[in-house]
Amino acid sequence: MDESMMTLRRLLTVHDEAIIEAGTAWVRETAAVDLAERPVSETRALVAESVRAYAALLLAGDPRPRDAFIERVTTLRSSLRFRISTLLRGFFSFHRALEPILARHSVPDHLAFDILRRVDAACFEAASLTADTYARKLHDVVDDAQRELVRREKLAALGGLVAGVAHEINTPLGVAITAVSLAQDCLQELSDAFEAGALRQRDLRDGLGRAREAAGMALGNLQRAAGLVTGFKQLAVDQSSESRRTLALGAHLHELLASLAPLYRRGPHRVDVDVRADVVATTYPGALAQIVTNLLHNALVHAFPPTNVGTVRLWIDRADDGQVELGCADDGVGIRPELLRRIFEPFFTTARGSGGSGLGLHIVHNLVTDLLCGTIRAESEPGRGARFTVRFPADAGA
Ligand SMILES: Nc1ncnc2c1ncn2[C@@H]1O[C@H](COP(=O)(O)OP(=O)(O)OP(=O)(O)O)[C@@H](O)[C@H]1O
Ligand SMILES: [Mg+2]
């Protein structure tokens, strides 16, 4: 041990109480947060620990007490609410307290200077380590909070969805029940008249007609309820269990469309595929298939009135920012602005009467944002078609 460190050791042995006392007073006076409410003993214990950490490092070359101290002060939950400057003041306090003691005990200038220089170097290192550790831990807290928020938001969305499903399914089931009981009444009337030998041919024809109508109504509504359940099941598919694959997207889109031919081959409309860039991506083929199917199906179902013949264009491209772009556009009737705002909402449909559940685009939206980690945009001007643009990273969900 050289002369300055021997001097420091002597001073610490004799005056450590005074150093800790002076350091504590300085920290409490100058802290950026109000320490008046905290007990002095708490500040004092922390200053004492930092002095011991300096002693171990400077006199014995042992950084462990310092590292343990940093770990501890940045782990206290309340210390994450402290200003970082207050934490760091604990380290600076050693220099502040030591300086007058060096002067008072007439330590020769060159030794005092060397001691303070080495204390400062140790202080600088400790301050950097503390700031890094503090920032990292604060970051973890923010990350946790963010995850928790997302989880809660998803739960709330799920709650709303379940309520929506119950409500949506209730309506067709209610209608079906009414219709079936109507049919039952008709059949009962017929059977009563028959038993009484009073069944006229006209009553029979009327009765059977009404019963058939009611049965038809029940069937339609039950089919609608069944459709909702199917849509809801798709929504609940465990997305994390789907496997990722590396695909050449252009070729994949062509294959996909060939398999979807039954959707459009017999109809009058044209479906074109445009591979603008040869993009290879590691992604979820099941989700892509579902997205393309829903977008294409929507265009074929909603875009063209019965007498119009239209074109649906699908494309794959690489966007300026390097993401994959998958698009679907039609030249049909388009979507009015007040509806465009709502198309991704669950159960929003303009085709309720003809079997639409309003889950199609909601499912697409979920797959794009949750699974592909991407975005989807819908643009439309009434009378000028609708255009859906999906963008996602080429290594989606990695
Ligand atoms: N290409 C399009 N052209 C015009 N309107 C569209 C188009 N795509 C979607 N829409 C509108 O958006 C609404 C919501 O679409 P979404 O796919 O969510 O439900 P849906 O098609 O009505 O029912 P589902 O998909 O469950 O059968 C549709 O009812 C329709 O009004
Ligand atoms: Mg749809």
From TrEMBL:
Keyword Cell cycle listed: no
Stretches assigned to coiled coil: none
Record's keyword annotation contains Phosphoprotein: yes
Record-linked InterPro entries: HATPase_C_sf, HATPase_dom, His_kinase_dom, HisK_dim/P_dom, HisK_dim/P_sf, Sig_transdc_His_kin-like_C
Cross-referenced CDD domains: HATPase, HisKA
EC number: 2.7.13.3
One Pfam family from the record: HATPase_c
Species annotation: Nannocystis punicea
Signal peptide: none
Keyword terms: Kinase, Phosphoprotein, Transferase
SMART domains reported in the protein's UniProt record: HATPase_c
Protein name as catalogued: histidine kinase
Lineage start: Bacteria, Pseudomonadati, Myxococcota, Polyangia, Nannocystales
